[in-house]
Design a protein that fits this description.
Elements (H helix, E strand, L loop, with lengths): L1 E2 L23 H5 L17 E7 L5 E7 L1 H5 L3 E6 L21 E2 L5 E7 L2 H8 L3 E6 L7 H4 L20 E3 L2 H7 L2 E9 L11 E7 L2 E6 L4 H12 L6 E4 L15 H13 L3 E4 L2 H7 L6 E9 L5 E12 L20 E10 L13 H18 L4 H7 L4 E2 L2 E5 L5 H12 L12 E2 L2 E13 L5 E7 L5 E5 L8 H13 L6 E5 L15 H23 L8 E3 L2 E4 L2 E4 H5 L4 E9 L2 H4 L3 E13 L5 E11 L6 H20 L5 E2 L4 E2 L17 E6 L23 H13 L15
Parallel strand pairs: 1-27, 2-13, 11-12, 15-16, 22-23, 29-32
Antiparallel strand pairs: 2-6, 3-5, 3-7, 4-6, 8-16, 9-14, 10-11, 10-13, 14-15, 17-18, 19-20, 20-28, 21-22, 21-27, 24-25, 25-26, 28-29, 30-31
Helix pairs in contact: 9-10, 9-17, 12-13, 16-17
This protein binds dioxothiomolybdenum(VI) ion.
Enzyme class: oxidoreductase
Protein name: Aldehyde oxidoreductase molybdenum-binding subunit PaoC
Organism: Roseomonas elaeocarpi
Length: 733
Amino acid sequence: MKFDTPATTNPIDRMRVVGQPHDRIDGRFKTTGTAPYAYERHDVAPDAAYGFILGAGIAKGRVAAIDTAAAKAAPGVLSVITTLDMPQLPKGKTNTAALFGGPVIQHYHQAIALVVAETFEQARDATSLLRVDYAPEGGGRFDLAVLAPSAPPVPGDSGEGSGGPPEDRTGNFEEAFAQAPVKLDETYTTPDESHAMMEPHASVARWDGDHVTVWTSNQMIAWGKRDLGITLGIPAEKVRLDSPYVGGGFGGKLFLRADAVLAALGAKAVGRPVKVALTRPIMANNTTHRPATIQRIRIGAGRDGKITAIAHESTSGDQPGGQPETAVSQTKLLYAGANRLTAMRLAEMDLPEGNAMRAPGEAPGLMALEIAIDEMAEKLNLDPIEFRVLNDTQVDPEHPERPFSQRQLIRCLREGAERFGWDKRNARPGTRREGRWLVGIGVAAGFRNNLLQKSGARVKLDAQGVVTVETDMTDIGTGTYTIIAQTAAEMMGVPIEKVVVRLGDSDFPASAGSGGQWGANNSTAGVYAACVKLRDEVAQKLGFNSADAVFEDGQVRAGNRSVPLGEAAGAEGMVAEDAIEYGDLAKKEQQSTFAGHFVEVAVDAATGEVRVRRMLSVCAAGRILNPKSARSQVIGAMTMGVGGALMEALSVDTRRGFFVNHDLASYEVPVHADIPHQEVVFLDETDPMSSPMKAKGVGELGLCGVGGAVANAIYNATGIRVRDYPITLDKLI
Ligand code: MOS
């Protein structure tokens, strides 16, 4: 189904099942431990052997030799595969650093050997017996602050986000900035961050002849299938990936990783299934991370508070051939201003690969921009909400002929202000004290684009009237199973209990996958398309005019005839498959999601300890398909925002080139005790430009801007402006 004109009224608008706060249909499996994760697939590979990965102990250089004799002689060992056994394996289309093969070390903890044994303990023990001779190379590039001044501008397209060129100019920024009576020129920094999802990367591989099946934990099944085929040098048709349950990803599982490649190689070598997990200590350096940024922001405004000039430049690093963090993308769209400049620079580095982590671009970009906006408001003696309202724009500021399809930022801020008690905020920082605590509140705008991706699904109807949906879409803890069931139930006019959802198998139609908060809208729109086709086929079979057929209460009706769906399907059942495909609607109108984030903090006046007291996010993100699972997404994102503001940072050893804190004991994320009451409000919105579902994403919006709101609240509490994340207590005393 081609979606190229705005959505009109359709069966989803009935909102009998869609839009209801339905419990997760997979919730019981998860809470009872019966949802099998990749490492637990004993059902498909009861005879699996265990593989253990050795990561490189240097960041740059070569492996000269690996002595495997002791490991091979260790109890239970079935095979030892080293990176010297083969040339560097071809890289898939999505990874920058190679995953295995050849002597060259591109980054610390790059996989250089796999030991396969009868048990996990035997494999781990034998791995410790491998003797590696390295030929380290000097000149490792590990310190972004040192590299940034000579980092070149990024050529070509800026990738995810708004997709503009590296240096975008509108009007004449320099001239307008020079003339502005009120101006700001500050630099903000964000650190490297790790996805730190609960379920580590894990795979079980089994060969059947020249076909390989990999039960794995991956967000993007079609990418993974393609890239595993490329890496193993076999046609994609001979690769099957299956990932029905994913214990979190946050972008770390968008790509093929070493666990899947090495499980496949190990299984081939020993002639039986092999399972491989990335253990927690090697995840931070073996996989991808959100790269650190250095962001310079300049804003000029008239005394009336209107922005006349705005510039945002970001520098980040990556492996050779990698991409910049698109931290300037929201600055192209969020505030008005006639004279604009955005640019990115990319430093080649020898740290592990930088790549997407939840809301790549906007998440670190807004951590900087929303402090800058708070600072400008203060310089102008304006309330920070009023300053944002004054500089709202209903059109793309770089292309004024393009309106936003929906933009309710002002309502998000106003409604949030009222609910949060913004009028009680004292604009003078450091003036509210409760005993030893300095108390402050802060606000930030939230912004994240809505991206449209082709997404397919198959829908079956059986003689019992059961509707089964199959798509390679994944549920990474987001609630996909449930919103897809709701969509199919609404479309076919059956209760949700009559819908079975099967996800994550590459034998199913290819979907948009889970990334960039595009999963919910696109994957349900794909199910919508397949259901439209199935409805047409049912109507046709019964001799109904398709436009007259009403699907309701498990029946299909037209005129005065009513047929139970199961009867219509007959003994053989019926099946329809289709995909949603998008025309160029997104070019005509800018599709984005908006939020107002509010945070209250208390800061210990003596120690600088920050406690978050209250949080509220008001979101405008199209139709909310399930307010319960959407709220869960947003409170999880708000929690990640607190982590980014106060705790999360990979510490770089700039001499040896690795992330030092590579476990959950030293890479700090918020725990329950750190997070107070969180409130989430969704504004009423339907966006007919986004898809027939009229929905958008919220999973990343809930993070975007939260860090800035925390920083602004800390400033309001203490009068100390910290521009370097995370805001740890040493920066406040
Ligand atoms: Mo998201 S970083 O695209 O999983």
